[in-house]
Amino acid sequence: MTSSVTLERHKYDVLIIGAGGAGLRAAVEAREAGLSVAIICKSLFGKAHTVMAEGGAAASMGNVNDNDSWMVHFRDTMRGGKFLNHYRMAELHAKEAPDRIWELEMWGALFDRTKEGKISQRNFGGHEYPRLAHVGDRTGLEIIRTMQQKIVQLQQKDGREFGDMEAKIKVFAECTITEILKENGKISGAYGYWRETGAEVLFEAPAVVIATGGVGKTFKITSNSWEGTGDGHALALKAGANLVDMEFLQFHPTGMVWPPSVRGILVTESVRGEGGILTNSEGERFMFKYIPDVFKDKYADNEAEADRWYEDQDNNRRPPELLPRDEVARAINSEVKAGRGTEHGGVFLDVSKRIPAEVIKKRLPSMWHQFYELAGVDITKEAMEVGPTCHYVMGGVEVDPDSAAAIGVPGLFAAGEVAGGMHGSNRLGGNSLTDLLVFGRRAGAGAAEYVKNNGANPVSDAAIKSAADRIEAPFSRAGGENSYSLHAELQEVTHNLVGIIRTRVELEKAIEMIADIRARSKNVAVSGGRKFNPGFHLAFDLDNMLLVAESTAKSALLREESRGGHTRDDFPGMNPKWRQLNQIASFDGDKVNIKSQALPAIRKELFDLFDIHELEKYMTPEEIAKGGSN
Amino acid sequence: MARKLNLRIWRGDSTDGGLKDVQVDVNEGEVVLDVIHRVQATQMGDLAVRWNCKAGKCGSCSMEINGKPRLACMTQVASFDENETITITPLRAFPIIKDLVADVSFNYKKAMEIPAYEPPKNLAPGEARMEQIDVERSQEFRKCIECFLCQNTCHVIRDHEENKKSFAGPRFFIRIAELDMHPLDILKNRKRTAQEEHGLGMCNITKCCTEVCPEHIRITDNAIIPMKERVVDIKYDPARMFAGLLKREKRN
Amino acid sequence: MSGVFSPTRANIKERTLRTDKWWLEPAITFGVLFSFVIYATFRAFEGANYYKDHLISPFYSPCLSEACVPEATIFGWTPVSAQIFNFALSPALIILIFPLGFRMTCYYYRKAYYRAFWLSPPACAVAEPHTKYTGETRAPLILQNAHRWFFYAGLVFNVFLTYDAIISFKSVEGEWGHMSVGTVVLLVSSTLLWFYSLSCHTCRHTIGGRLKHFSAHPVRYKLWTWVSALNHKHQQFAWYSLAGVAFADIYVRQVATGAWTNFYFF
Ligand SMILES: Cc1cc2nc3c(=O)[nH]c(=O)nc-3n(C[C@H](O)[C@H](O)[C@H](O)COP(=O)(O)OP(=O)(O)OC[C@H]3O[C@@H](n4cnc5c(N)ncnc54)[C@H](O)[C@@H]3O)c2cc1C
Ligand code: SF4
Ligand code: SF4
Ligand code: FES
Ligand code: FES
Questions:
Q1: Distance (Å, rounded) from C-alpha C148 to C-alpha C170?
Q2: Considering only alpha carbons, which residue of chain B is nearest residue A149?
Q3: What ipTM goes with this model?
Q4: CATH code at A553?
Q5: Nearest-CA distance from A539 to chain B in Å?
Q6: For A327-337, b where at least 16 C-beta lie within 10 A, e where not — what string?
Q7: Could you tell me the pTM of the whole model?
Q8: Which whole number is the average pLDDT over B142-161?
Q9: A3, part of any domain
Q10: Nearby residues of B85 by Cβ (< 8 Å), 6 or more positions away
Q11: Residue C10 lies in a domain
Q12: Largest CB tally within 10 Å, which of A261, A330, C49, C84?
């Protein structure tokens, strides 16, 4: 136990938890607004999830097809999310994304170029026009590195001004936050430990931005790294914020399935964007069978037209491989269940037939590398085996779209994957990277504004003591549960009972089992010392994952329809009534409670961007008659 | 098909440590990081190791495997002989923290010393035009995943602690080259500072950085040697010396 | 204790834990280069057996000394005296500095001999024996930056050696239009030298590498891509051309001493 006298303390204006795209963009904004900023992350600086994003960042710059505009992007986003998106977030995102990309270029990013020397854009599932700014298939790396280097630039500027590069913006890497602290109902800081030493540390700050990314590690097969344990979701819940729509998880249709050790690792959607086709073990290009009615007029129903689309996009409908991810994931799931899967339980994804080997290596270099080195497959010659993997959580902290302020907790902000609402029931590929930038910036600005109006809010000793006690607890227990095996158990439950296809009975069982694991987790004991001890780290991550899993299972049980990243076997099909409702999760200190809450009605001028016939597929006649709000 | 694998893993911290023998199951297709995780989950709960992506994209899992600096997530167990004992140690050029985790903060300090990108003053966002052929050279260097294997292998600092203060290392030579070749960067003195402040001259182009780079960036051929040549341009070029051009180019 | 044995580093006694044959490559490099140096030194001082029937050894070309056999000179041009301070200089010694300097300062050979002779480092992740290291920052190694000077000189030499190869299309009687095994040997050796020079890093830099905007110089960009492709194989060209020169010299010497007969195809 660390006494409050020796406790390491830091004071900042804004605390940013998470050094992915969202966190770093927020940090830049807050610093440029003149505030002092601490960035905290669990891994080394520059290793956050964002680094793994491959395909690209969606922004309607119109560099490749100048028919594109924010309106088209907005429509695609709403469609992709099955109209459950918070319209205002989708609007802000579509409008501001191009500026955020151009801004990166001013900071030194080097995107691939068009012939005219502009930023090149590629096709992606659900996007009507080529829209994804990209660098080969390592776009996330480019974005995170650019921002990392932007932060260095700000530090160099501070160095010239204050004689210390870290005077106003400092990165605390390999440090885990275990608790967000409040005094008098407002944010006062955060508490955590250094992974390296296990020593505890207190950050005092009137504003906290949560940018902790996703929850994939709650599931067994996932594209996420160990960091994706839903810390921010849980921290926010415990601090009194709400989570919205936690039932919506994106299972990316194409994860690796073989060998077992790489199961779940992502195969980027660009493989399909560049012309990859999906076939089952009978050699059938099966996606033509799975085009849902709402998409019939946008997707080709025969191979000839689908093939022509790559050359002439104005006069042909797109191939069904490029349907939104939820559709493709379910299709693959059905094929495998029907016994038409590959030997290892996936389907085939093939680029080798359509694209020459050199082009594959140039456009998809890291995919080539990944398959060659990890699976011994040369994708320029053979097909890949792929299957669904848990990839992204659409649900997250309920925020005010314009400032990214968490509803209900003054001083708390959330941006990036951890925030909810933007993507509705399903996220389009490429929309996350620009989401990080758009709302990261807004969160930084929102926090800066809040700090200027509110000032410091000192942390009390009582708050410190209770946070410290929690960290000490697992060490003082002897012979309790092992966190590794509890984690494996939880993953088994979520995978089997809260996965791609859900039913009431299974969800009820899952809720019970999660509660049981949670009860036993109170008994987790840790072997070894505090110094860089993964067992100890997992004990805390586990607690967060359990809260996330509970929120997901409970929200999923309530939502009696199938939509986007939530499929109920017992309630197939969308129900316009449910489209009007969000599921809001909150925490009472003991368990997660869910309530339904009306979705804000879409503004009239945005409503008018859509064809009425399209809206009829999603909305009730009364809603259509109203024609949006003012 | 599981089989038994013999490992020697370095365990310890800055006070002491040594190689510990362990036996662990290994399945077909597994990489070294998988077996380390199995050791962690079944035998050594507090074995420290860094990793994130498990796909060679983040550069976290750098360590030395049978003495060679590598990414554990990209090293197939099958690439070793069946009855070979695999020795795993932390990076040896940096201070040790614990077990397989080394203190790589040196690299982040150096990153802060490289002058940032400087765009033209009057360029508005969205107006930049760059040809693909002009950005390609720098793009190669931007593939860097900051695994710091090159830094770890470079004998200039691996074998000479005292050089750390005056040597940025290959990772940052490619950063300097990237900026010097960036079509829009306007900062003029990168070549001179590379030589005079960041220790480009310390590199004796023995190419170990290139040998270990998991991204296959041709660090020496495409960044270090071209930078050395650019330094020659402004400092040692015969033609320029005789033409008296040297003075004028000093500002570069 | 410095380097990998510094007190802050993980406590490991071995200089390296590599289990492969890391010492093989430096050992071979050492062997080959060392033999070449011994042979070249012997030949440079020999001062004889470098010319026979329009075949001249590359070690002795261009032959600029008054001591040269007249047929080996370039139209009898001998600007350099045969003796310096009463010391008889072999014609090879006068010009040796250029090809030698070119190779000594070559980026590839630097790597090869720093590893094989200096053991700095002997191989990657194998601790080097030296306690101090300053790289190429001070004398004498700072002189490596003179590579460009030698590169230009090397080009001039390539012209001479190509000229020699052309001359070897003469018959013993001096009639054009004939060709012998010697012709092939000289042609191959001079061609390899061109590849060696063209693939040089300095060449790659001057031809286009130094530009910031390739798009503004399409021709130089094209040349740069070609040179870059050759540069990829610079190490191979370095060895092939070395072998080529050595063999050309051996061949000429054998013919000159009468040990071998130069066979004429036509
Ligand atoms: C393999 C893969 C490919 C993808 N490809 C694309 C793509 O092509 N296009 C696209 O738009 N999206 C893509 N995505 C999705 C996108 O990358 C992520 O949604 C996005 O990067 C999330 O960014 P973030 O800033 O919200 O959080 P992250 O980048 O996940 O960063 C989270 C940060 O929070 C820190 N953190 C977490 N918990 C704590 C704690 N308790 N204390 C301190 N710090 C903490 C972490 O250390 C980390 O720094 C992909 C995702 C994956 C996994
Ligand atoms: S080539 Fe230079 S930078 Fe690279 S490892 Fe060798 S000495 Fe270090
Ligand atoms: S240059 Fe290569 S070896 Fe060095 S840090 Fe980057 S990726 Fe790693
Ligand atoms: S874990 Fe990311 S590179 Fe190995
Ligand atoms: S000759 Fe080898 S680099 Fe110039």
A1: 35
A2: B116
A3: 0.94
A4: 1.20.58.100
A5: 12
A6: bbbbbbbebbe
A7: 0.93
A8: 97
A9: no
A10: B6, B7, B8, B21
A11: no
A12: A261
